[in-house]
Amino acid sequence: MAAGPLRLEIVEPMRVLRVVLEEHEGMSADLTFTAVTQHIEDSRMRREKGATLISERLRTVQFGEWSGTLTVNGETIECTPDDWWGFRDRSWGSRSTGTAAEGPSSAHSSSIYFAWTLLRFPDECLLVAVNEDAEGMSEARVAAVLPFLETGDPAYGEEGRIIKSDEFTFDINYAPDTRRARCISLEVGPRGRISRKIEIEPVGQFQMQGLGYYHPRWKHGTDHGGLAVGAESWILADVDPSLKENVHAQQISRAIRSDGAVGVGLFEHVAIGPHAPSGLPEGIAPRDQ
């Protein structure tokens, strides 16, 4: 529940959480997350290579709103639920891909293709996620429409209120010479109870190496020999998307549903290695234009 200057407090289980960062290198925060939907479990992801289990994990997701303050280099930002919407997810299980356990010549090395979007519209919240192998075979796949919580609604356990599907397509238009999305067309259904057509336009960027993904020093699973605390910052315009540590990103996005409804959210994507349906080759090179 605590690591160095950072700690998490459970105010109301599965519904209200407080995140506190004591002052560290010019940063501090006291933020509260309040859920607006119940939790949902993504489909279980399992990957094998021969007789070796590469990954098996599960994730829960919840939409919410933020309140409190965030201070960076002397500037304090006030966060209010009307203006600061967000999400939280919690994953657990076993993974070696992209961690310290996967060396340059590891027998566990494998390609990864992951696309994940969380979108909040005025009348609903939408989750769509897929993991695929190099041939485009799905290893985990889910689309779900989550209603907003009403007064007295439980924050988990009423799966019947969540409409799900596994039929959808992401059509990703990559920026030239990158594996970074320029725009995305998402279609869910129409088979089943969900039928949505959405255009997703990225408007902001968050480098996932800031959470340890493929970071040269803070890679997941790295043993630092005890407590280690650090901070880094980047000028996003100078970030080279062709470097492996920068391929994985979340993009803050604007979304327009085919009925005209406008939503906001994120599109997270990482594609390393070949992916036949996208025409992506080995490594992190872009596909042929």
Average pLDDT, to the nearest integer? 91
Helix content: under 10%
Rg, Å, rounded = 19 Å
Q: What is the chain-wise order of helices and strands?
A: EEEEEEEEEEEEEEEEEHEE
Main pleated sheet: 10 strands, antiparallel
Structural class: mainly beta
Overview of this structure, please?
- The protein has one helix and 19 strands.
- It is mostly beta strands and 289 residues long.
- Strands 10, 11, 12, 13, 14, 15, 16, 17, 18 and 19 form a ten-stranded antiparallel sheet that branches. Strands 1, 2, 3, 4, 5, 6, 7, 8 and 9 form a nine-stranded antiparallel sheet that branches.
- A hairpin with a 2-residue loop joins strand 7 (52-72) and strand 8.
- The longest helix has 4 residues, at 244-247.
- The N and C termini lie far apart (47 Å).
